[in-house]
TrEMBL record:
Belongs to the class-I aminoacyl-tRNA synthetase family. It catalyses: tRNA(Cys) + L-cysteine + ATP = L-cysteinyl-tRNA(Cys) + AMP + diphosphate. The keyword Nucleotide-binding applies. A motif ('HIGH' region) lies at residues 29-39. Its cofactor is Zn(2+). SUPFAM superfamilies: Anticodon-binding domain of a subclass of class I aminoacyl-tRNA synthetases (SSF47323), Nucleotidylyl transferase (SSF52374). It comes from Clostridium puniceum. This is Cysteine--tRNA ligase. It comes from the Bacteria.
Amino acid sequence: MRIYNTLTRQKEEFIPIVPGEVKMYGCGPTVYNFMHIGNGRTFIIFDIIRRYFEYRGYKVTFIQNFTDIDDKMINKANDEGITVKELGDKYIKEYYQDADGLQIERATTNPRATEYINDIIKFIEDLIEAGFAYEVDGDVYYSTKKFAEYGKLVGQNLDDLQAGARISVDERKKDPMDFAVWKAKKPNEPAWESPWGLGRPGWHIECSCMAKKLLGDTIDIHAGGMDLKFPHHENEIAQSEAVTGKAFANYWIHAAFVNVDNKKMSKSLNNFFTAREILEEYDADTIRFLMLSGHYRIQINFTKELLDSAKSSIERLYNCINNLDNLKSEVSKKDINDQEIGYLKSLDKYREKFIEKMDDDFNTADAISVLFDLTKDINNNVNINSSIELCEKAEALIRELGKPLGILQNHMKKDLETEIQELIDKRQQARKDKDFALADKIRDDLKNRNIVLEDTPQGVRWKKID
């Protein structure tokens, strides 16, 4: 298996620290608002990486944190007149609802930063003792110049980073690029006792501490969105390696952004969507299909048209599963014969191809293409003359290859039929009301999903075409 390592800027053979095991840390949400679709893509990517390692037989320990104390949370809690803890509790619950809706499996552990305050304080004490941090008026800063390799993740030296960074002026810092690992208490902020007075941790130190505490000094994989590469992940490396003297993570994986209608998602452009809003209109299989239809390191475009296309595509895959389900109740032959055993063996090439694509830096786009080739083969060769056992094993293979992607595990047949019948009824009513524009739109929308309506003397019938 080869993984593109952001740190070395090349694909590398994956060699775990402990054979057969993967220790993975993914930066989770700051819990002050609902998950948006950009977060959704990143968390789906974490999910398929974890799922695929497990599919390949690895034991995965996956840690995804909740940042439940930071400036945004404090401001939002003060605006709403509630405590930061109440705000965190609320949006952690909302996160789980959205993650479940997107068919994202729960992490091994979801630590909250506020649960590790004593460990964070000890971590900062170790930084100070090692000469990498200093205290000023109750604040503690990391001294970036003390870490000779600062900037190695983004491939820039300290001077270049400083020239391009937006730095808040603070004359108390020894260097403009130094960053806070502990912040002295301000009015209307939660705070904890520390050797430097009442205060709270900085954002970057939280992840360094939780990763070390739960996974050890060196972890196999650290993952996150591309926006976290600098300064968050760069600072994590500097903190962690200063304390341990060891590599913090052997492989760094970063997921690219999501654009909406070819533009960067932002509230000012009115193209900002939460995962929950999208889930009200599209199911998880459809959303995941769109998110995985492009390589995780490449930006994807998110539009209603592309979602509709993804919905049509996932229905084509489910159509093969549904056809196999129907055949199981219609065929007369139960046990598989030698010819069918030979055919099943020929399908092994799709599993091998799927693994080949996913082993190449989790290439989900090409892996999905393999699924379409598999279903086409099955559609052409499994029929009313086949055995029940062949139908069952063909369906099992489709679902097996869909599982690492988190798709094709549901039963859509009845839902699809119900939805289409409701649209047909709506079209018929529109025709009665002489609203021909609506009737035509319904017909055209179904056609775009490869569903063709036929007006017959017995009523409207529909069929799915490839």
